[in-house]
Amino acid sequence: MKQRLLSLDTFRGLTVAMMILVNNPGDWGHIYWPLEHASWDGCTPTDLVFPFFLFIVGVSISYAFKDKQPDSKTLLKILERSLKLFGLGLFLSLFPKFDISVVRIMGVLQRISLVFFFCSILFLYTKPRTQIGVLAGILILYYILMTMVPVPGIGAANLYAETNLGAYFDRMILGIPHLYKAVKVWDPEGLLSSLPAVGNGIAGMLAGYYMQNRDQEVSKKLLNLCLIGCMGMLVGWAWDSAGFPINKSLWTSSYVCWTAGMATCFWVGLYWLIDVKGYQRWTKPFVVYGVNAITVFFLSGLIPRILRMIKLQNAEGEEVNLQVWLYKSWITPWFDSPYNASLAGAIILVSLWCGILWIMHNKKIFVKV
């Protein structure tokens, strides 16, 4: 196994653990606000999770492909991994009914696969200067599309949930039966909004490339990256103030700048603490998540679906699924507050997965996708 960058594995593990925490509350009706997405504009801690992961994908690409050539073997591996990720996402959407006529086509793993594919190709065929230009071009183009291009059949450009240009593309190309069921007529991981999401991956690639620069001292590289990250957040805040709001569902350009800047600063902090100063003893619970990230994300989405398929009766004689029964029987009786019970349910799940992943790590079981 190659020598891994411990700060990056820790960052990935923290992100995935947080992803599981926010995706699996005990009760969706009782969630503390930091563990919820912003209702529309704005950014909560939960809204940082997905773009942080895409940033990490970009950093990983810069390390994994730094000595690779764009030959047929490398390109085939990129395509194969991208298709596997997309396929796993489709499987989660299809399970358990496997009804192709109403399957959601896009999703979290699907977006990760697209970002990985396009960023990998960009990294192999271009230099950092070109990548910076592509990043800027993507963000400006998306801004123009979303704020200046009229929406067919609706009218002027707008940033409302159901009538923006991205929602129009989702309905036109994917079709309403294949969109996110909770909102029905648009998709938070839709096609057009996947374009700026690539920007988070590019930002990670650039940060990773700069971190590997051997012509500068580590302290100077960390300081410069931190300043760049702060500049990114400042640009995001300014763009938000100028009328293109920070918005995860639309994945606005201001949101990319804000989250990519914050991810850069966060990684710099972890790099300094773990790889430079050597404070590593606390990292293993997150490393075990980080080295099997896609596996635990996939299974944490699949197993609840299986539990919901199993029906039984509760103490009142009502039929409930096994997931609800476990929560109501084993967790809620211990708490007076439904919010605390809901949070406890999520923390217990994260802890259970940590135990499983710890055993896998000790046995050197690393599932590659």
UniProtKB/TrEMBL annotation:
Keywords: Membrane, Transmembrane, Transmembrane helix. The chain crosses the membrane at residues 48-65, 108-125, 132-151, 191-210, 222-239, 251-274, 286-307, 339-360. Pfam families: HGSNAT_cat. Residues 4-146 form the Heparan-alpha-glucosaminide N-acetyltransferase catalytic domain. InterPro entries: HGSNAT_cat. This is Heparan-alpha-glucosaminide N-acetyltransferase domain-containing protein. It comes from Flectobacillus rivi.
